[in-house]
Amino acid sequence: MRQIVLDTETTGLSWERGNRVVEIGCVELVERRPTGRTFQRYLNPERDFEPGAQEVTGLTWDFLADKPKFAEVADEFLAFIDGAELVIHNAAFDVGFLDSELSRLGEHYGRLHARCRVEDSLALARQRYPGQRNSLDALCRRLGVDCSHRQLHGALLDAQLLAEAYLALTSGQSEIGFATEQVVQVTVAMIGDSAAAGPRPRVLVQADEVQAHETRLAALRKKAAVCVWDLIDA
Predict the structure, then answer these.
(1) Active-site residue list
(2) Per-residue pLDDT tens for 10-30?
(3) Which whole-number Å values give the CA distances from 88 to 42, 85, 109, 124, 130, in the listed order?
């Protein structure tokens, strides 16, 4: 499955009041793995920032004045996301702005929902952590994603952070990685009892499967203090 983790920065909080997109950032995942492909563009919004919005991103009109307009990058942007599942934190915000930008170019450009399925990571976080703060910063701290270098909002940086947080949020590995030592010992004991029940069918593992397994374990070791698999091998 191909997914695009997407974020935008804008001149204000409401596209209905004529605010525009000033940056688009996208990170590609294929089968839940980053491919290294990204899409990032600063845009000339053809209008001023609303009060307070400029301080959030650190972007200035002087910086954006010579950047392309959305119309100049629309085809390239749509080619990058077409057919993928979009992962967006507070999707209604970004989708509303991007649909507004597309509508300025003509009805033949359509809307994002006609091109892509949209997954709202904020809705997922609220389901998993009801009653808690689920901003991107809060989610990163909760899931062990390092966002200490994030001083200002930037679309590509936020998309990269969201990609890490989304994978942790949806992998189910946080429960394993942050298990207590007692839970780990019980798990190991259960596996040992199961092994004593008798021989199991032998399964031949391919080289690419071994590599994927090692990559997954490395990610768990990085995010957690205890990795059940290492204790079993020991």
Answers:
(1) 153
(2) 999 999 999 999 999 999 999
(3) 18, 10, 20, 11, 19
